[in-house]
Amino acid sequence: MIALDEVVRRIHDLPSLPAVVAELLASMAAEDQVDLHYLAGRIALDQALTAKTLRLANSSFYGMPSKVTSIQQAMTVLGLHSVRTLVTACGVIAAIPRAGNLDFDAFWRHAIATAVWARTLARHLRQSPETAFTAGLLHNLGTLVLATRFPDQYAAVQAWRRQHPDSGVAEAEQAVFGVDHTEAGSALSAYWKFPPAIQDAIRHQHDAGASGLALAVGLAHVLAGPPDHGPAQAEQAWLRLGFDDEQRRQTSEQCARMVNDMCQILV
């Protein structure tokens, strides 16, 4: 077993987020004081981040009628919320080193799919779409912490699941580590100074009584199709949403298109 404070200590060994991502996260708490021109200039200094952000801005994710060619234009056309979402996505994915025996491409594809689904479901659940996207993208960050900081123990988690095929990921993590990915992910999001609402959504996404942002992330996680969920769990999620067959079809097709576009750029 590994104590949560040891997990937190190892989290502090992870690289920091790019400075501009940290500034964008800080802007969530003081949006009336944000200098958009200054932030656009800060983002533009990172050429790789700018290139990916503009590719995302011009993808089907936003369906812009004309091409966005600069961060300043993206700020004007899409707004701070959307640009912050895109830059955060690019920055977080680039910040985590690929170590251990985790399938990183599969991990990020599912994270992006969950983010897209969370954003799509957010308005129906009366949540901020952009905040829901960010929370969805980060929902399994704890898995990255456990897999990259404790690779031997994480291999034991995978072995434990093979021996207990009816178990869930969190159950296996608790058996091996004594903590699961929601606790580790919430701790990492606190270290990276993500807003409390996102920290709480990561921690409580699988709770039976989840509501608000945590509910949006939890339902998105299921509908995005992780390997440990089947048709029964997806049906329960649809019933919770109250979507009819046509709404289900349209939402699924829309999300599939956006996930494909985003994965081509980010993964």
The CA-CA distance between the termini, in Å, is 33 Å
What is the SS-derived class?
mainly alpha
What's the tally of helices? 16
* Quaternary structure: single chain
- Estimated helix fraction: 55-70%
Q: How many E-type strands?
A: 0
Biggest beta sheet attributes: none
Instruction: Give start-end ranges of low-pLDDT stretches.
Output: none
Tally of separate domains: 1
CATH architecture: Orthogonal Bundle
Give, in order, the helices and strands: HHHHHHHHHHHHHHHH
Q: Give the CATH H-level superfamily.
A: Hypothetical protein af1432
By CATH reckoning, the class would read: Mainly Alpha
What does this molecule look like?
The protein is mainly alpha-helical. The protein has a single domain (4-266), classed as Hypothetical protein af1432. Helix content is 69%, strand content 0%. InterPro entries: HDOD, RNase_Y/CdgJ.
Observed structural traits:
single chain; 267 residues; mainly alpha; Hypothetical protein af1432; 16 helices; 69% helix
Annotate the secondary structure layout.
Blueprint: H1 4-11, H2 19-26, H3 36-44, H4 47-57, H5 71-78, H6 80-95, H7 104-122, H8 129-138, H9 141-149, H10 151-163, H11 169-176, H12 181-191, H13 196-204, H14 212-223, H15 231-241, H16 245-266
In short:
It comes from Duganella callida. This protein has 267 residues and is mostly helical. It has helices spanning 4-11, 19-26, 36-44, 47-57, 71-78, 80-95, 104-122, 129-138, 141-149, 151-163, 169-176, 181-191, 196-204, 212-223, 231-241, 245-266.
